[in-house]
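In these records, each integer encodes one residue's backbone shape. Here is one protein:

___
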Amino acid sequence: METVADALVSTLREFGARYVFGVSGANIEHIHDSLYRLGQNRLNSVLCKTETGAAFMADGYARQTGSIGVCCATSGGGAVNLAVGVAEARASGVPVLALVGCPPKSLQGRGAFQQAEGGGNQVDGEKMWRSVAKRVSVLKVEDFWPNLRSTLIAMLSGHPGPAVLLIPRDTMEEFVPPCPAGKLHRFCAQIRESVHSTYPVPLMPSAMFRSAWLEAKRPVVIAGAGIANSAQLTEWAEREQVPVATTLEAPSAFPQTNSQFLGMVGVAGHPTCHDYIERSDCILALGTSLDIMARAPIESAAREKPVCIVHTNLQALPDWSRLVAIEECPKRWLAQDFLSTDGDSSRLRDWPEPRPFERSVVRETERTDASGLGNTQAVEAMQSHLHAFDIVMMDAGNCAATAAHHLRFPAGVHSQITLGMGGMGYAVCAGIGAQLARHDQRTLVLCGDGAMLTTGMELHTAIELGLPILWVIFNDSQHGMCTTRQRKLFDGRIHATRYSQVDFVTMVSGLAGDNQIWLARADSQAAVSRRLQEYLQIEPRVPGMLELEISTEEVPPFFPFMSAESPKRERQVVERTLA
């Protein structure tokens, strides 16, 4: 017979999980002991520096594999820290499984250390988790197998999301009944079959939208993260002669080198893309619910057009008069070929090449050095080196907006900006999970100094594992997006967004031994290119960090800030978009 901890680890191993990201503690140590004994080099522990970082890594891993990411934490502060990353997974629809150790049942309600049963002065842990996860349950011996089955099915069915298993310490030592399927591999196969059986029969779009699409002369597809990197979409768009725009969350969801690529839509999108969508006569959105970050620049133009959204998440849709919404996996839906025109040659092929905004420098600030390095110059220097990377993770903020706006990602590169909760520091950690998911490739992480200060100690995790990840830190000693808003919305009163200079090269050098990580600085566009070339020539591959000394402050290519409307109207757009 197996204990709860052993049975859980063995099942996750057979289900295909490869890593459990976490920080140990008294009430989770049975899980780590089971991993040590039963992982079989197929399911391994990754010791993180923070529980938040662990959840972010599990999230990054899950996004790259399309399967579950697993993280764990002990009770009390560890569990609360883990909740930050689980909340991001919930907001972005990522199947992360959080294993949370709890005080033993025998002490619950009797003053256990870190107890969280609610009432009096106690945190109600279960209620907290229910507010951030798709499914939460307390793991018990008597319903171990059906509970675990239901948990995994819930995570992967419909719109994916995180699940939390609360496991009392003494429960981990109790013995579970035999696996009901006889063999673990059979039990796991049944779960996968159940996930697929939950998909509904794909629905045909309304007759009104289908007619509008088939008759359209300038139809447009907007591809979101839910259909990213789909060869099926690429083939269909080429056959149907329809241009495809992507969103900020997944800029390269559609190959940017493809002739059908229209550009990126949204708050950091291309003006040429927005202009074309305004002239379009029908819009099909796949894998995106067109939230405000995607639709802000096209809201007024799209409001009266026929629009169909196909996505697994239909919450908080735009209030448009001709909108049709279908709750479905966009890849499965597209395979039904509901909108095929057999390549109607009457459609106009007049979409433009994506064109970015002109670089806009804030010259009135004492921090601006006209000859120094700015965000746009930095990302332009990266363009010729992007082909060497397979994954590009961008942390939300000015550097991400600039990178997504100006870079053209080569074919096959997976790019991502996480906008679910949009917190600083996600990409610093998630890049580690992503790299472990695709271990034979390279990952590039672009982030600001604020993100690095938030979760930068997780570089130690990558150093220990020897992962070929390059972090590029845009260091301008401020929270740049916040500073820009203060200039725009608060008459230039800059407050609580700037801090003293941090030397990240020195800081990170203390995390590694000799030759364990490559470290460098760059203060000009030419230096950025030289340093990248230097890093890419290192063999064997090692982690790296390039600190960019940003001395030119720019207005980011963020739609509300680049608007040509009146200051009053611009302020209203900014406030609505950022609300």
Notes: Residues 136 and 164 are 5 Å apart (CA to CA). The domain at 220-334 is CATH 3.40.50.1220 (Rossmann fold).
